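Need tokens for this chain, all 135 residues.
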Amino acid sequence: MIPANPKYYDVDGCIAKYGEIYWRQHYNFQTGDTIYIYVSSPDSKVKYKCHVEAHDLPFSEEIATDKELFVNPQDFETTRNYNRFMKLKVLEKTNSDKMTMVHLQEHGMIRPPQGCINLSHSGFAELLEYIENNF
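Here are the structure tokens for all 135 residues:
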């Protein structure tokens, strides 16, 4: 699971416009992995299920297509200097209330994610099962 904060980046706009997204890669995701995107306040819920199409990508002009979706242009420049990205293809979107933080906490999530969460870790088995069954 990865977090998205609409105060910095319009993830909903990017997905609506492109159906895919390039994301800075901090964790060792691999092509073929499934990633859920948790969108913070005001949504505060898991909204997207994605497939990693490619990983460990260097910055390219193709990645820069979403430049206008950064709230602060300086944040784009910071991202531009980061040289490890993954390409995510959106598989599904949900607005289900079952994906809100309140329900996720009932199934093992302690707080909103501040970074990547490896849901395949045994400590998140209940949470992953809940998300997969209710997405």
